Amino acid sequence: MKRLFSILAITGIMAFGSVQAQEATDSTAAAQTQVEEVAAQADEANAVETTTADEDAPAAEASFTQKLKQRFVEGGPGFMGIVLLCLILGLAIAIERIIYLNLSTTNTKKLVADVEDALKSGGVNAAKEVCRNTSGPVASIYYQGLDRYDHGVDSAEKAVVAYGGVQMGQLEKNVSWISLFIALAPMLGFMGTVIGMIEAFDNIESAGSMEPSLVAGGIKVALLTTVFGLIVAMILQVFYNYITAKIDSIVNDMEDASIMLIDMLSDYRK
Q1: Which H/E stretch holds residue 14?
Q2: Distance (Å, rounded) from C-alpha 208 to C-alpha 31?
Q3: Residue 47 to residues 55, 56, 269: CA-CA distances in angstroms?
């Protein structure tokens, strides 16, 4: 439940940031429009001189953000909005997983050394106290194994293996949703492409003639949806690969530490 609230909170923050950026962009565009209107009136007052100056002066280029916004609007609110939603939800889950995995990462070598020293000095109870005061999946696995030590080393080993699977499931939780958004974003883009092509051919059929202006609009919309879908998939793919690599690293530490724990318990029993 806490992870669900964190995902919803991150999604809300990202959506609120997008709205604020949109409002700021609209305000900037409105101010720019007013400036252009004033400049146009001044140009009309000084027709000959201003026309010559405008021909010589280079045209101001739009910023990358303005171009991106323009292309997004041209792509249509239907599919482009869904693609944007995939990006926001995918990033929210990815950020939540990255935070959780970083908090789950512990210094395994230090933990193993502390548990070994505690076993030699204070026994199993002291080692359990060390694990109880340490966060992370490795410490939790150690605690479960030490807690079953009274029933024998075999029982402790079974507990370590079983609880290791539980911890692995916690690490991989919600990661499948990121892969879903990675696959869904390009598919939505391709669907927008197909629909745009269908609309282009409908315009040709209605006009009864093959004119470039009739086809250009539909093809442009179709290609824009595909481009944005691929961009979203590439962004989420980077986060997905980082998360899977982090999970593999933590799982390897868990497996190595589990083997060390069983060896320590076997030696301690002797």
Answers
A1: helix 2-45
A2: 43
A3: 12, 15, 99
Q: Based on the fold, state whether residues 85 and 18 are members of the same structural domain.
A: no
Tell me the one-letter amino acid at 198. Answer: I
Same domain, 193 and 263: yes
**CA dist 231 → 84, 91, 104, 181 (Å):** 10, 13, 30, 12
Same domain, 265 and 194: yes
Do 94 and 148 belong to one domain? yes
- Burial code (b: 16+ CB inside 10 Å, e: under 16) for 67-103 equals eebeebeebbeebbebbbbbbbbbbbbbbbbeebbee
Residue 13: domain span: 1-60
pLDDT tens digits for range 215-259 = 666 677 777 888 888 999 999 999 999 999 999 999 898 888 888
Q: CA–CA separation, 193 vs 200, rounded Å?
A: 11
Contact 83, 228 (CB under 8 A): yes
Considering only CA atoms, which of 124, 138, 191, 198 is closest in space to residue 168?
138
Number of H helices, E strands in the chain: 10, 0
Cβ count near 187 (within 10 Å): 13
Longest dimension (CA), the chain: 103
> For residue 151, what are the CA distances in angstroms to 134, 158, 250?
24, 11, 28
pTM of the model: 0.69
pLDDT (tens digit per residue) in 93-136: 999 999 999 988 888 888 888 888 888 888 888 888 888 888 88
Q: Contact at 8 Å (CB) between 156 and 145?
A: yes
